[in-house]
Amino acid sequence: MTSTRRQILARTGATALGITFTGAVSELFTGSADAAQRLGHSGYGPLVPDPDGLLDLPRGFRYQVLSREGDQLRSGEGRVPSNHDGMAAFAGRRGRIHLVRNHENRRGAPIAVPAVEGLTYDPTGKGGCTALELDGRNNVLGERVAIAGTAVNCAGGPTPWGTWLTCEETEDRAGTNGYTKDHGFVFEVDGADPHRTGAVPLTAMGRFQHEAVAIDPGTGIVYETEDAFDHPFGLFYRFLPEKPRGGVGSLRAGGALEAMRVPGVPDLSTVQEPGAVFDRVEWVPVPDPLAAQTPIRYQDFGPGGITHAQKLEGCYWGEGHVYFVSSFAHRSAGSAADHFGQVWKYEPGRRRLTLVIVFGPGTDIDLPGESPDNICLAPSGGLMVCEDGGGAQHVYGVTRRGEVYPMARNAQNVGSAEDPEWGEFAGVTFSPDSSTMYVNCYTPGTTFAVTGPWR
């Protein structure tokens, strides 16, 4: 690692996440199996090929297959749906764990989330969530539908009161693609008792192509990212709930939706200097949160406009701040500048926005492909990152010292011998006691529990 790169990373403020990027960080995003083996000296060692051809892990680690696409749900409600995506783990009674898992199903998905009375929003929607109940040894005690009839459930986020907010990454209206109801909403899901939350859209939180959410536990404010597919790109939102103290169902009481404006910055991709700070962030009321006539990102926000960004995805709360990710930006798609990943930090008390790190052309960290997708904080204080790109797919880790290492590789070829293809990882999360890493393979839909000598 060059001294220039160390200087750039030192200025980014990455230590706010409890880690210091001092290793060859660019290797984290190469998508190269060779790179994975070259990084074997750090982390937990090189990956060992799995004789069963499912999941390669470092020596000493083991996996259990908790659930596979197409198997029968233990509830008898139907088959395990396709396209496993975002996920979170919650502590239950008597040492049990509840996993809530998204299914990013569009109309053409092979296996829909089965419709269940009282848990189905739109009978024509194929997306939703399923919930697994595990004992302390990750034995599956139950598996059931948690919400059905939604669409393109990509990511979301946990609430401080132990429920999951699942997000629809679409804004199709009733009558489009065969749907009978409008889509593009957030839904609350209780993995332990789904009928407590039902299938009620949280309409005040906006109708747009949602990606992820994060909640400030002190104020109850919900931050939301929008992963829009076309130009103008998505916005970064905050939702001010009427009942800020929270609790199951509290978000149904409504609230106010606002979008972030950075004065003088209509497109976040133009900010290329790590450590750049904006002290006068503004929050502008969204004219029509339900987007009855016009998608929110096209609406008129008055003088000064609004701030857009391409490919807004991850969003999480930590150290008293909210972090959000722009996975990449391309001029060819309409962005004002190119990059292969930005991580932003917003400090609510100061209304301050900081570019924590930027990857891509024109920087010391020039990445050859798309930046990572789902990420989570590891028990050791580092990060776990799900790769989403070409070639073999990995879960990578970054240690407190900045060492980048391979944690898992999907060994399932879903293509052919002539044209191999490996499904991306998604939904990486840890058990409440930090003893198990749970992660999904998107396709073929598989949920793994990984145990071993975690540090």
Task: Based on Cα principal axes, name the global outline.
Answer: globular
The proportion of strand residues reads 25-35%
Low-pLDDT ranges: 1-41, 361-370
- C-alpha end-to-end distance: 25 Å
The main sheet comes to: 6 strands, antiparallel
Q: Helical proportion?
A: under 10%
Number of strands: 27
Major β-sheet strand ordering = 1-2-24-23-22-21
* Count of runs of 4 or more consecutive helical residues: 2
Instruction: Write down the overall mean pLDDT.
Output: 85
| N-to-C order of helices and strands | HHEEEEEEEEEEEEEEEEEEEEEEEEEEE
Q: What is the radius of gyration?
A: 21 Å
Backbone structural class: mainly beta
Notable characteristics:
single chain, 455 residues, mainly beta, 6-stranded antiparallel β-sheet, 5-stranded antiparallel β-sheet, 2 helices, 3% helix, disordered N terminus
Q: What would a concise description of this structure say?
A:
The protein has 455 residues and is mainly beta.
Characterization of this structure:
- Helices cover 3% and strands 34% of the residues.
- By secondary structure, it is mainly beta.
- The protein has a domain at 1-60 and 376-455.
- The strands form six sheets. A six-stranded antiparallel beta sheet has the order 1-2-24-23-22-21, with no helix packed on it. Strands 11-12-13-14-16 form a five-stranded antiparallel beta sheet, with no helix packed on it. A five-stranded antiparallel beta sheet has the order 15-20-19-18-17, with no helix packed on it.
- The longest helix is centred in the first third of the chain and has 9 residues, at 3-11.
- Residues 1-41 and 361-370 have low confidence and may be disordered.
